[in-house]
Write a structure and sequence with these properties.
The protein is an alpha/beta fold. It folds into three domains: about 100 residues, YqgF/RNase H-like domain (Nucleotidyltransferase, domain 5); about 100 residues; about 130 residues, no CATH class. The chain is about 55% helix and about 10% strand. The strands form two sheets. Strands 3-2-1-4-5 form a five-stranded mixed sheet. Helix 2 links the parallel strand 4 and strand 5. The longest helix is centred in the middle third of the chain and has 34 residues. It is globular. It starts with a strand and ends with a helix. InterPro entries: Transp_IS110-like_N, Transpos_IS110, Transposase_20. This is IS110 family transposase. Keywords: Coiled coil. It comes from Pollutimonas nitritireducens. GO terms for molecular function: DNA binding; transposase activity.
Length: about 350
């Protein structure tokens, strides 16, 4: 019996495979070790393969596609409803096999090696930024135990703490001064590592035409643009800009019933890193708009009548839809686009 659809439950060393024929009857239920994956699927007739979008999923998707198979990745929360009774590897593989054949299933775009490489830079940079913030807070906390209060902000730590350590009039043990000096050196090391990774990201940004076009949008810099281009990949995966905004979690969460609409706060679905970058960029645009106080500016009007946080999410939503339009139509951003259309 020919295998039509296969579900793979990925793992580190042992993978569970579940296959069905064109009638949906189970014809394959097997455990495969990592080193057996390539030889097993290269000898398997071309079929539809489904996997959850988890660790190593994009790697195996590219490998299996190169063998001629059709591969789809799915978010784990969309596969969960198809798991029957108890959870185990065999049940998960069966659920994946069932979910990938659903006509309404939403799939995750498969990333290429270049996209994964750029996103790795972003993830490492994000980790270094968190470590730098934690290190600065630790230094402030230790100094606070000795009655030395440093204002919040990494800039204050790097500027004022060395002066406090070198001040002989302040009563501090010598071992404590050495400890703080060591922590400051670690903080400076994190600074340098972040700067080096940002230089790599900006170098990739200068070599990518789509990323350069996105930086023309207010509130989008090289960091945000490169992360968006590498994550979204082909904008044709989304039917419209609203789908992209919803995919990033920038739309209201619904809890409606009986024909009554009940909209809550933003859904926060999707990539939290991208959503954070877009919202922080929107805050910068709102800050400048409030300084100019132009009544004809949409951003100023929204920020004036609503809470600044609501305005930031609304602008981030609008930015996401603008980014989709630029990518899908291969256009340059124009501030006077609406005015030009109205004149025409």
């Amino acid at each position: 019996m020919k295998i039509k659809t296969v579900g793979i439950d990925l793992a580190k060393n042992v993978f569970q495979v579940h296959g069905v024929d064109e009638r949906g009857k189970t014809v394959l239920r097997k455990q495969i070790k990592r080193d057996q994956m390539a030889s097993f699927f290269i000898n398997l007739p071309t079929c539809l393969i489904g996997m959850e979008a988890c660790g190593s999923a994009h790697y195996w998707a590219r490998k299996l596609q190169a063998m001629g198979h059709t591969v789809h990745l799915m978010a784990p929360q969309f596969v969960k409803p198809y798991v029957k009774s108890n959870k185990n590897d065999a049940a998960d593989a069966e659920a994946i096999c069932e979910a990938v054949g659903r006509p309404s299933m939403r799939f995750v775009p498969i990333k290429n090696i270049e996209q994964q490489s750029v996103l790795s830079l972003h993830r490492v940079r994000q980790g270094f930024v968190k470590a730098r913030t934690a290190q600065a807070n630790q230094i402030r906390g230790l100094l606070g135990e000795f009655g030395l209060v440093v204002p919040q902000g990494i800039a204050y730590v790097t500027q004022r703490v060395p002066e406090l350590i070198e001040d002989a009039l302040i009563e501090l043990p010598g071992s404590f001064r050495i400890l703080i000096t060591r922590l400051l050196e670690h903080l400076q090391l994190l600074h340098r590592q972040i700067d080096e990774i940002e230089a790599q990201i900006k170098a990739w940004h200068r070599s990518n035409e789509a990323s350069q076009r996105l930086t023309q949008v207010p509130g989008v810099g090289p960091i945000t643009a490169t992360a968006l281009v590498a994550t979204i990949g082909d904008a044709k995966n989304f039917d419209n800009g609203r789908q992209l905004a919803a995919w990033l979690g920038l739309v209201p969460r619904q809890h409606s019933s009986g024909g009554k609409r009940n909209l809550l706060g933003m859904s926060k679905r999707g990539d939290a890193y991208l959503r954070t970058l877009l919202i922080h960029g929107a805050r910068s645009v709102i800050y400048r708009a409030m300084q100019k106080a132009d009544p004809s500016n949409w951003v100023f009007n929204v920020a004036s009548r609503r809470n600044k946080n609501i305005a930031a999410v609304a602008l981030a939503n609008k930015t996401a839809r603008t980014i989709w339009a630029l990518l899908i139509h291969d256009r340059q951003f124009r501030l006077d686009y609406r005015a030009a259309n109205a004149a025409a």
